[in-house]
Amino acid sequence: MSGPAPQIFLWLTGQEDNVGDSALRRPYARALADAGPVTAWCGGPGTGYQRGLALPPDVTVSRSLLRWWTALVASGLRRPTVLAFNAGEFDVTKAYLVGVVALLPLLPLIRLRGGSVIWVGAGVRRRRRGLMWPFGALARLADVLVWRDDRSGALLRAAPAMPDWAFALPPGGLLEERRGSGDRDCVVVSLRSDRPMPSPGWIASVGRLARRLSAEVVVVAQVERDDARARHVGRLLGATVVGWSSADHAVQERALRDVYRRAHVVVSDRLHVLVLAATEGAVPLGWCEQATEKIASHFAVVGAEWAGPGADGSAARLDTLDAATVNALSRRTATAVRDAAAEVRRTAHHMGSVISARADGVRTSRDTQPT
Fold it and tell me: What SS3 class is residue 132?
């Protein structure tokens, strides 16, 4: 880049009770910070979610959405400016809808001044009739548009897919402290609280798997609202429970990673439990009775379709596992995570190249396939 780096305005909100939300956005924020100075809107200041983002010290965090929006307008009028919209799955809420509608008039100005519009690593949960047009407009105006699964492109606007940003996290998750020896001695379970309880047959299959692997069972909660479910399932399995113990996402994530680092396999119907576990070397299995195709579609992007729930019965599939098959899946997991992280890095490089090129006055294509 011949001139100064453009100012980047990043929308980076997430759920306060979900460690996966801060984890997946951490590498997105760092990739953007490598491209220029970042001003981020992360929601209310000083939250556990914000601490979990572990933002670089030179990122400016706005204390209100209005301040962030006002600064974006002022910057967009004066110099090349980047709007980077949120990564992660989104549903159409009132706040999201109003926020995107308020941003839309600024996007042509941003592009006219040599800035760019970035939307990378998002996922569309579902279509809401009559409410998708602002998001469709944002997608059409994006200089870089990359979804985190193929289904999202079919729901909103066709664009390439990339692995979820969280696959780029190294062991330890870019958090300051890493603990644990890495000796694998447990089977980990984590289940959503908003779905029916697993059947006695599924519970029994988890117990049999642990015995075949000479491992203990550990039940964890990566989302605060799953804590009661974790404790209930833990009692049924006679398992150790690592529940929700801190509103600080960084503290909670470190505790969870300590467990994942010990796991042979992690069985869950939560996507980011499986992704974080895979980055710690555990075999991720969405082989749960209430797991959905969301897990299958996101792991298909990284060539690990086998991690999805499948159609042949989760308890029966768990009963097929032994030490040899787990070791084979462990090798496949390592390859999938390595390749996924490399693909995320390529996407981040492409994103930075487009930001630089547009700020330097180089015409770029909106056909946003990373090279």
Answer: coil
Q: Can you give the pLDDT at residue 179? A: 66
What b/e string do you get for 181-200 counting C-beta neighbours within 10 Å, with b at 16 or more? eeebebbbbbbbeeeeebee
**Nearest C-alpha neighbor of 319 from the set 213, 164, 217, 173:** 213
**How buried is residue 27: exposed, middle or buried, by Cβ count under 10 Å (0-12/13-18/19+)?**
buried
Nearest Cα to 292, choosing from 220, 360, 192?
192
Separation of alpha carbons 206 and 267, rounded Å: 9
Q: In what helix (H) or strand (E) does residue 120 lie, and over which residues does it extend?
A: strand 116-124
Q: CA-CA distances (angstroms) from residue 42 to 14, 74, 85, 139?
A: 7, 20, 11, 21
- The SS3 of residue 41 is strand
**Residue 6 near residue 355, CB atoms below 8 Å:** yes
H-run or E-run covering 190: strand 186-190
pLDDT (tens digit, 9 = 90+) per residue, 238-268? 999 999 999 999 999 999 999 999 999 999 9
Please report the domains of the chain, with CATH numbers, ordered by start residue: 7-170+340-359 (3.40.50), 186-338 (3.40.50.2000)
The answer, as to whether pTM is greater than 0.90, is yes
How far from 218 is each of 70, 236, 258, 267, 350, CA to CA, in Å?
A: 48, 12, 12, 10, 40
pLDDT of residue 46: 86
**In the chain, which stretches have pLDDT less than 70?**
1-3, 176-182, 362-371
Q: What is the mean pLDDT of the chain?
A: 93
Whether the CB-CB separation of 113 and 137 falls below 8 Å is answered with: no
**pLDDT score for 178:** 66
Contact 30, 348 (CB under 8 A): no
Q: How far apart are CA 165 and CA 249, in angstroms?
A: 17
